[in-house]
Amino acid sequence: METMRRVVMVACAALLFLPVAMKSRTSRENPAHAAFCAVTSGRIAVKVSGEVLYPGIYEVPVKSMAVSVINMAEPLSNLKQYRVATAATLPLQNGAAVVLATQDDGSLLLVPGQMTVPERMVLGIPLDMISMNEADFDRLPGIGPALARRIVEYRQNNGGILHVSDLVMIDGIGEKKYKVLRPYFQLP
Asked: How far apart are CA 29 and CA 143, in angstroms?
């Protein structure tokens, strides 16, 4: 009786495991769309949204162009009739965002941008201190609204320039807090 019970349990486990094993197999013909994964060397994370079938975050080779990333996400309309914002002609950087938007005249516009600070934090992509606002700084651990305001004011008082090492100059950020914050930013 005990042997039969074990055989039934092994068979049930195999039946439960089989769909998981089959689903985890990847096909070379049908790559997975919009997967969140750790970015490896030589690759960058790019967010794609707008008029595409598979919006999401893609891991693509360094120096990828916006049009190639939009093609990976499968545009809902023919890409032959689209306009490109000037910055979309440059290679994408890690943490870039690309939007394919339909204009009032029916044409498509390819617009580059940047992922939000929370998205970059989740993916481990360094933050840009120059473009962050008070709300962005407030999202960092140990930074509240008052300290976020002081960081932005410090940056404004220094000609819009702020380096990671400047954080210790701001009232409320000591060495301990600086060590917590430093990993969120790309060091020069």
From this structure: 46
